[in-house]
Amino acid sequence: MVDSSASILVQREVAAEATFNGSQKPKPESWSPSSWTAKPIKQDAIYTDRKNVEKSLAKLQRLPPIVTPSEIVKLKDSLRDVALGKAFLLQGGDCAELFDYCEENAIESKIKLLLQMSLVLIWGINKPVVRIARMAGQYAKPRSSPTEMVNGKEISSFRGDILNGYDINERTLDPSRLVSAYFHSAATLNFVRASLSSGIADLHRPLDWGLGHVQDPELQAKYSSIVASITDSLRFMQTVGADTAGQLRTVDLFTSHEGLLLEYEQSLTRRLKRPTSGTTPLTRGPADGTAAADGQAYYNTSAHFLWVGDRTRQIDGAHIEYFRGIENPIGVKIGPTTASSDILTLLRTLNPSREVGKITLITRYGASKVRDLLPSHIRIVEGSEYTRCVVWQCDPMHGNTRSTSTGIKTRQFADIFTELSETLAIHKEQGSYLGGVHLELTGDAVTECTGGSEGLKDADLSLNYTSFCDPRLNEKQALEMAFLIAGHFRG
Ligand code: PEP
Ligand code: MN
Fold it and tell me: Which of 129, 358, 390, 426 has the fewest CB atoms within 10 Å around its CB?
């Protein structure tokens, strides 16, 4: 049962008085889906129309789960394998998913791209790949400033479709968007599930690799030989009848988003029976007491995987309080502003029982800073009781954003790959395992990041720049990134 929306309101007023300066109320011993409301919160959504917020939250609390505990546990099992070095994690999708992206072609192209990238990675790394889409719920965005200047006028920033609209006339927070987010999320996931069960990921079907844009003959030859090798392997498996159980007909694709808007997340947090399927979690520490006698636990049913953003991971803040109580596997963004001393506190707060693979540390320093900062962060974790317990994932996007001379937000393909290869090298030196990548990408032919084999320049960015938030790799750049990662492993 979730708390009543009326109590959310009362507790939020209490929370508003709390501060980060150590004078806040004592940490509550017990967790509940609403215990975050007693904590100071960053990136808060302050609505003027509170009555309609409560109405939307009450509606959300009645709606059925979007994902189920069985699916969440299945992902946890897979992430345990990633933490143990037996599998690799590919996570990708839009920076800000718009409600408008809930459309057949946009969804299909993203599924196909993630599938193709995963095949390249499986080939290169020689390990199973776990796929998580930043999709079906990535609607809330943290912003560096609450306002922006548009045509000389200061207006509220766009905070993601769950809160307000990009159109300058829709910047007021609109409570009806909370419910709209649920339905767009559910419709997107419904089409993902339907496409998968209808054979979109059927590996018996030829895939369109479209390498025509690769100008460099050496790269063209290299990528073509990877594709030939993958195609040959698939054909061989089919010929020898290796697909008796039909594993080549579909794949798992999990969903994820940043758990930013806690009222929404709370409303979809349900106390449900732990599935009896799935393997027993592998823990390296004492039981954390959450395994209640009634065999139930709290699941966030809005997505399989949620992460805490770089701006909201304060140890005594609302987001960490919320995240410490849910069963889902969770990510935490770690960057140049993360104090080394915070990392173990975060792990001890979020995963006291040391469940292997429960936490993914999503590192995002930037190409120029990763060498200075990542090694000590790895040593702190791997030298502690959390050794071989976390999934290390590299997000080479968020530390590499820059503005062009004309003020367009972009990222250079080379910087993204530099951070990724440095991260791989550093993990190798430290004896740890880089278990995954986290990319902002789209299946469309956008021009938002420069570089890659198409050779996009600053001047080309205006050709098809459609992101309403951060610049994404287009389908060619994303696939090329997968080729480069695979090449790195194959040597
Ligand atoms: C994001 O993943 O879109 C994001 C805002 O990242 P970060 O929290 O790392 O800045
Ligand atoms: Mn982003």
Answer: 426
